[in-house]
Amino acid sequence: MSLNPTLAAVTDRIIARSETTRAAYLERMRAARGKGPARAHLSCSGQAHAYAATGPDQQTLAEASKGHLGIITAYNDMLSAHQPFETYPALIRDTVRQAGGTAQVAGGVPAMCDGVTQGEAGMELSLFSRDTIAMATGVALSHNVFDAAVFLGVCDKIVPGLVIGAQAFGHIPAVFLPAGPMTSGLANDEKAHIRQKFAAGEIGREELLKAEMAAYHGPGTCTFYGTANTNQMLMEFMGLHLPGSSFVNPGTPLREALTVAGAKRALSLSALGNTYTPVCDVLDEKAYANGIVGLMATGGSTNLLIHLIAMARAGGILLDWQDFAELSDAVPLLARVYPNGLADVNHFHAAGGLGYMIGELLKTGLLHPDTRTVAGDGLEHYTQEPFLTEDGLTFRPGPGQSLNDAVLRPADTPFQKSGGLKRLAGNLGTAVIKVSAVAKEHHVVQAPARVFHDQEEAKTAFKAGELTDDVIVVVRFQGPKANGMPELHSLTPFLGIMQGRGQKVALVTDGRMSGASGKVPAAIHVVPEALDGGPISRIQDGDVLRLDAAKGTLEVLTEGALEREPATADLSAHQHGTGRELFSLFRRSVASADEGASVFGV
């Protein structure tokens, strides 16, 4: 199958745009490879420090003739998705030792849960935690004693941060080892229904808590298709997971076997062997284009419209939202996973999962087939799925057809002909919108604006009965420079109630929505942000706005609205407390959302 012309054109444009920065990055990686791991060149004292606690591996390390694997872990036992990683280091060390090598935990990185901090002050640290994770990864690997590395992380900012950090050490191989989703609990649509009933005052907190704990009930990733599970999809589409490993549940024999195989594979990819595959060669322009295709075909998280740009820039690759928009127009939506449907990721995996989807996209020329991956050269490896037999872990061809066409469909009969995300542009700036869960009758909303400077103000107005007519809710001064660009997920229940009452309703914000944002049209990541004096800072209550997801436009229709002086906001309450004072430098130096909202340059 020949390559889809849109995919070819977008990829060629990315390559041309990135020529200078990518060449400089690869030159740095070649120089780092030439120097190699320095453990054999460390002073005797330095080596003794590095090996002192390694027990049976001490002598092997001293000989410096075997492969040495670094483990970067985001383990903590507050995050259900990361709790399974507690046992991974011991398993990895034993595995690598049996293969003749050695492994050490190089370092830990922080991992926070957006689900816990939604609507709380801690959410203002969330986006910045990504770059903190990248820096912590750099510190962990800075001892320069490792031939390859494995990365233990799953959730929202953790995987993007780990990928950014891994690319700083792009001359060594990197394999990402997932933990998998928790088993299915309370259905996601029922959970959402109960949240709306609570927001409407129809039930109390005790009933709400009971439902939430029935939904989030055990180890593993949350089962809806938010940012965490979008991350896992990307790691397969971009070749950093073993095939079919993303959505295998924790605590199962297959999950353990995949962890063992991933550790062995990482060691085998080092420069000491015959299949040297550094991560700088895996994460090239084609891999990032494949990642964008996966994002569109699955209706994934809007957060990746920021993270993928930041991840790519760490490898000298320059993406922009126009790349995403053009690929979205060309890529069909093949999956319906909550909030885009009723199924969860376990149902998606059982229906054929990523292996089936990658096969369908390859057949239609919508993926680059010739990328390098940790499983070998060629994305065809990722049409396979793992099985545990008497002979151990094996990979077989995945299903040739969807096993549930309400969840997963072939490319010739998709749920919709275009992807789940769109770019919006107009006199209000540039924004993005997730449309995969938005009914077509809500793709165009024209209504008066009601302006707020934080989500609590908006919720208070709703509870006071002030939002009963058609309205576009504007929540501004939520960008990365203003307050770290928190997710505004707590707006979702009351906006959903308003839409359910028959109102025309939409959201416009320079902040973020949850990666699981759903049925209410939301123009998010608006740039320039309000703090930079962007057009959104000039909107007043009553101005008529128009959000048109069909045409890709976002406009204020009120004459003279953009000639006003920009509004200002008192942001002093967002500068201190819950650790926010530690990130003042980030707020001052962060790039705009369309440049990845990162504190790092290219």
UniProtKB/TrEMBL annotation:
Keywords annotated in UniProt: 4Fe-4S, Carbohydrate metabolism, Gluconate utilization, Iron, Iron-sulfur, Lyase, Metal-binding
Binding, [4Fe-4S] cluster: C155, C222
Pathway: Carbohydrate metabolism; Entner-Doudoroff pathway
Cofactor dependency: [4Fe-4S] cluster
Molecular functions per Gene Ontology: phosphogluconate dehydratase activity
InterPro entries linked to this entry: 6-phosphgluc_deHydtase, Dihydro-acid_dehy_C, DiOHA_6PGluconate_deHydtase_CS, ILV_EDD_C, ILV_EDD_N, IlvD/EDD_N
Enzyme class: lyase
Dihydroxy-acid/6-phosphogluconate dehydratase C-terminal domain sequence ranges: 407-597
Cofactor comment text: Binds 1 [4Fe-4S] cluster.
Signal peptide: none
Annotated EC: 4.2.1.12
Reaction it catalyzes: 6-phospho-D-gluconate = 2-dehydro-3-deoxy-6-phospho-D-gluconate + H2O
Domain Dihydroxy-acid/6-phosphogluconate dehydratase N-terminal intervals: 67-380
PANTHER family: D-XYLONATE DEHYDRATASE (PTHR43661), PHOSPHOGLUCONATE DEHYDRATASE (PTHR43661:SF1)
Function as written in the Swiss-Prot or TrEMBL entry: Catalyzes the dehydration of 6-phospho-D-gluconate to 2-dehydro-3-deoxy-6-phospho-D-gluconate.
Family: Belongs to the IlvD/Edd family.
UniProt-listed NCBIfam families: edd
Protein name per UniProt: Phosphogluconate dehydratase
Natural source organism: Leisingera aquaemixtae
